[in-house]
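[Meeting: bench + compute handoff]

Bench side (C.D.) handed over the final construct sequence. Compute side (W.E.) agreed to return the predicted structure before the next meeting so the bench team could plan truncations. Sequence as handed over:
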Amino acid sequence: MKHPKNLDFKKWLVNLLKIIALALFLLWTIGPILLVILTSLKNQKDIFTVPPTFIFRLTLDNYSRALVAGDFARYFVNSAFVALVSSLLSVGLGTFCAYALVSLRVRFASLIAQLFLLGKLVPAITMLLPLFALLNMVGLLGTFVGPILAHTAINLPFVIWLIMGFIRDLPEDLEAAALVDGCTAMQAFWKIVVPLVLPGLAASMILSAQFSWNELVFALQLTNLDTYTLPVGISKFVGSISVDWGKSSAAATLTMVPMIIIGCFIQKYIAKGTTGGAVKG
């Protein structure tokens, strides 16, 4: 029989290891963000000080240069437009598709769903060359159409699978009762299904917008100077000879703020949305 003190020590040791692991993970996650924020508040001399100093005179000059000279406002509006439109398209098309595959008894629905998942497993970069050629052929290269189509195509498989899980969890009797009461299939969809899967829709919307907001490669290749998004605009602060670390850090900090604020307010909805359809109730 084990002594109670040994059991208490083992439990204490396990808890200590968990705390250390969580602290290391937190440092790994928060460390780069704090480094970017601190760099954005330093002048050029303090940025290049070796070893790095954590006690310095705060300055907002980098933010003024990013907002005025860096065309940050235009990039911000472009990113917001691309993220909003691509997210609406992804969630709208994905919801209709998920409902059709689950509730309308489409032939080969399981195979079609697996093909959507296969599309998610294919590296997204493989779409860049054909999409570039198509947009160039129809004269839409350098417009917002390119990144919107690319982001929608990348997000759509994930949205479909996420919402399918929610729709599968809905009691079939609800839709049947609506149909008996005289509703059409589309009316049952809008009045019964959509309100009940709102957490999944919210999670899909935010996660799709987050991807679009941060995506660089497609936006870099498919836009021009007038349609640059924030990641592309920030990348332009990196010159062939030197990097404007202060201005790029300030722009990166301002870019992170909207997603952080939105995430804090709707964190519970994201958690509920990404796990609600995982278990059959």
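W.E. noted at the follow-up: The two ends are 42 Å apart (CA to CA). C.D. will use this when planning the next construct.
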